[in-house]
Amino acid sequence: MTSHADLIRALDERDTADFSALFDFLRIPSVSARSEYTGDMARAADWLAHAMRGIGLEAAVLPTGGHPAVLGEWRKAPPGAPTLLIYGHYDVQPPEPLELWTSPAFEPTIRDGKLFARGSVDDKGQLWAHVMALSAHMRARGTLPLNVVILAEGEEEVGSDHLAPFIATHRERLACDAVVISDSAMFAEGMPSILSSLRGLAYFEVTVRGPSTDLHSGMYGGAVVNPAMALARALATLHDKRGRIAMKGFYDRVRPFPTAVLKGMRKLPHSDTRFRKALGVRALGGEAGKTTLEKLWTRPTCEINGMLSGYTGEGAKTVLPGEAMAKVSFRLVPDQRPDVVERQFKAHLMRQLPASSGVTVSVKALHGGAPWRADLDGPIFDAARAALRNAFGRDPVIVGEGGSIPVVSDFERLLKAPVLLAGFGLPGENAHAPDEWIGVDNLRRGARAMAFLYDEFAARYSP
Amino acid sequence: MTSHADLIRALDERDTADFSALFDFLRIPSVSARSEYTGDMARAADWLAHAMRGIGLEAAVLPTGGHPAVLGEWRKAPPGAPTLLIYGHYDVQPPEPLELWTSPAFEPTIRDGKLFARGSVDDKGQLWAHVMALSAHMRARGTLPLNVVILAEGEEEVGSDHLAPFIATHRERLACDAVVISDSAMFAEGMPSILSSLRGLAYFEVTVRGPSTDLHSGMYGGAVVNPAMALARALATLHDKRGRIAMKGFYDRVRPFPTAVLKGMRKLPHSDTRFRKALGVRALGGEAGKTTLEKLWTRPTCEINGMLSGYTGEGAKTVLPGEAMAKVSFRLVPDQRPDVVERQFKAHLMRQLPASSGVTVSVKALHGGAPWRADLDGPIFDAARAALRNAFGRDPVIVGEGGSIPVVSDFERLLKAPVLLAGFGLPGENAHAPDEWIGVDNLRRGARAMAFLYDEFAARYSP
Fold first, then answer.
1. What whole-number distance in Å separates Cα of residue B294 and Cα of residue A350?
2. What average pLDDT score do residues B142-169 get?
3. Which of A175, A308, A452, B114 has the fewest beta carbons under 10 Å from its own?
């Protein structure tokens, strides 16, 4: 076991400067979903490349066909040392609704030990923890114990469409012995966590079109099919009474989770009452007969993410809308596939709203990602357990995650390397919502854990 | 029968000036539903009062507790002449969606004999036809054959909340022998029409609230009740499979239309195919077993007017929305009542989404109006038949109307006077939608018909 005291000291010395730099990074509104932020996306990529160069890496902003990727490299480790690929993303979710932020989304603010900003936890802050960790090694020892490639993409929040092709194209340059990603949350405060599974995603925009223009709801109402009503009725058929998804064949490819994983989940401290109260709801929902963690981590879902039709401003407008739109997404579990779900979803809606129904329905696939389950053996996982224990003072737990990081399975498939997912967010961190935050101390411990991980992995690795 | 040649000449002479003034009126964005237009509402009221004074009426802008009413008066008719109350409204619907207008909503434009502008047909243009008609009398003869009160309100598009109290307060001043309103459409080009019925309205905003903030749909999806999904499911229960409204007690107060009226409706030239094609839909909808005109004029409805939840911008945002909103309105027929429907609607939604459902539902009544049926006898209706025949060259037909003019029954009740509804719009006029228009020639004939009406009514009236 290597001593980590020098790394801790190096991180502590630089704490103020590291946070100040992160604040600069968070101030850039790198919203990948909306074209008006294209300039800010480029600015964030350049900023990050510059920061990587500042700690001694070679860095480049590389085109992807969409928003650019930032690639940092350091390959001066002794012969026989492993190569670690660190993946993160510099793009963030749109900040809306702006009025619900306590402090502005792109003005990082620390309150009560929490750093609030869009991207603080998802994922700029966590990506930055790796930069802090690498910087600590460089300053403490002038070198790194392994070869490092950092890949920061700019399209994670819009489906990482260009990342798999990018990995395929740059396969040689990205070749590695393990991938580490910090883009997830710990199970609870003080409980470092290793992710054993991610859900996949199949995200669609559904448009139901009726009359060719908005109509007066009095003059036409009662004889014309209302597209908003048709959409509501179609959406209402997506679940059955027990909360299962009522689409034909939807569960056919679902492979049950190993009993050991399910058992481990049941041992985790979880209170439905506390969960419910934290969300401000009087009852929970979802599939009957499953525990909450089972529902969140091991079961597929169907959600409405957005809905828009007709007049939504102040007051009353008596309009019969010409069309209605819903964003609908499915979370997938192994071995479901986004393309299969797309076919099932389209078929389901066409059955609900055939040409004879008086409206037409169209479905646009906005993005998809495969579900994933980890193999928890091997040096990178052993190294992670040791590094997390040293940084947080207790053994990590093995958890699942309901969200998606679509590229995880791409990395495994294309680079043939195991992927370690260890993140430092917390439940309630408001990723994708107003007042997104990360605990300042968890960010610090995360940087420590990652600095330790490089040592631990290098020590355990044999070519 | 009085000769009308002088009135026709007076209208023709002034045609350019009358249209130019109407354009000025239409340019004022008098949107009553939205507070940012409050200044324009006041401006439109002042403009109208000024125009009334210009033709020799006394006019005042009077407070109502909401947007002001404009009252024009002329009471110099010979003893024994009747008093006619002309009612119209100077407020208009919001112009959105702006991008669907061929020419700007508040820049009146004539194309192919149609005058396009928000308010052209509903109702500034039709109100203006009366001003043109009165002006013609004044110029041709220096007098009017009857006493006239013009009441133009500014809240018709938001439910006329303050009009009934206003009428009650000013009952003496508004006392009259008949009310005439031009705020409706003719059955078809060349077919002058008298309205025998209007549907009432009960308009609501429904909000379904779930978690206290928007959530990440991956991290929380599957265990939390999605308010948008809950709303869609609740909305889907509002109709049964035969297109009837599935709310308990909803049809209890519906009084069947007289057989003679239904028979007359079946004789009107109507083609479902043409109706369908004009709307750009492949099939019609609504209650099974009813004809289209029956559905539109004699049956109650339930429509979604608007729907909003979660993320509706470009691209994909994986959010589980904290709340979802729908604007839902019912058209009512005699003897349904908005207050009764409000109770039924709230009870229905509470049954669908009880406290135990994991979401809460709230319903805000935005406005309501009673349904109405005309009694077609008496001098004002005889006068209308003669005036319309003379102006359009054929006998008027008796039609129904699916829309609402909530104040019609208030006039009857408070002023004890019969109400004549004769309007000059046409099907497809896009009232409440982009590209609202009125036929230029129908507007001219409408002004003639109203000029004739004053003579015909005065001639037939006996105190």
1. 30
2. 95
3. A175
Size of interface A-B (CB pairs under 8 A): 376
CB-based contact A224 B285, cutoff 8 Å: yes
- pLDDT (tens digit per residue) in B223-242: 999 999 999 999 999 999 99
- Phi and psi at B385, nearest 5°, equal -60, -45
Least confident piece of the model among A118-127, A426-435, A450-459: A426-435
Q: Are A222 and B301 in contact (CB under 8 A)?
A: yes
Q: Which of A203, A281, A431 faces B316 most closely, judged by CB atoms?
A: A203
With a cut of 80, say whether residue B446 has pLDDT above it: yes
How confident is the model over B211-220, as pLDDT tens digits?
999 999 998 9
Architecture of the domain defined by A5-198+372-460 = 3-Layer(aba) Sandwich (3.40)
Whether the predicted pLDDT of A148 surpasses 70: yes
Check residue A1 and give its pLDDT.
Answer: 44
pLDDT of A428 above 90: no
What does the pLDDT average to over A91-97? 95
Q: Domains of chain B: which residue ranges?
A: 5-198+371-460, 200-254+300-369
Q: Do B218 and A331 touch (CB under 8 A)?
A: yes
Are the Cβ atoms of B212 and A324 closer than 8 angstroms?
Answer: no
In this prediction, residue A2 has a pLDDT band, given cuts at 50, 70 and 90, of low
Distances (CA, A) of A58 to A51, A74, A179: 10, 6, 19
CATH number of B200-254+300-369: 3.30.70.360
Look up the pTM and report it. Answer: 0.77
CB B321 to CB A308 under 8 A?
no
Question: Mutate which of A203, A224, A265, A352 to test chain B, going by most B C-beta atoms within 10 A?
Answer: A224
